[in-house]
Amino acid sequence: MNLPESYIPILIQAGVAMAFVAVSLLGAHFLGPKQKKGNSVKNQSWECGIPVEGNARTPFSIKYFLTAVLFVLFDIEIVFFYPYAVNFREFGVEGFLAVLMFVAIFFMAFFYVWKRGALDWDK
Where does the chain cross the membrane (predicted)? Predict the structure, then answer.
């Protein structure tokens, strides 16, 4: 298999990344603390001396997660505007039309989310 020379640094970077992940996971498994099974006092939750109230596994409302996902989605949209803002003169009319289409798609997503009531906390 003949690879162009320009792919070699990419393969080296991918190999280093995979090796780092493997070493991190194995290191955490072998060097991390070992927990004993059972219901001892040491394994219970402790909140600064305050007695524990209820269960820590109570479910949260899906609205918290939905808000976080929507924030990340629309925050990433702003990140994609940066290359356009830096090079907007070089992109010309074609680049402007591409960005308008990008914005239109995100506005459609925003209005869909709005109409579905995801931004209404009263429901």
Answer: 6-32, 64-84, 96-114
What is the residue extent of each domain of the chain?
61-122
- The encoded tokens of residue 78 equal 């702003």
Q: Rounded distance, CA 60 to CA 22, Å?
A: 33
Backbone CA torsion sign across 99, 101, 104, 106: negative
For 30-50, how does the pLDDT look when each residue is reduced to its tens digit (9 = 90+)? 998 877 676 666 666 666 777
Q: Are 28 and 36 in contact (CB under 8 A)?
A: no
Q: What is the DSSP secondary-structure string of 2-68?
A: ---GGGHHHHHHHHHHHHHHHHHHHHHHHHSPPPPPS--GGGS--BTTBPP-S-TTPPPPHHHHHHH
In whole angstroms, what is the distance from residue 110 CA to residue 74 CA?
Answer: 9
Q: What pLDDT shows up at residue 44? A: 67
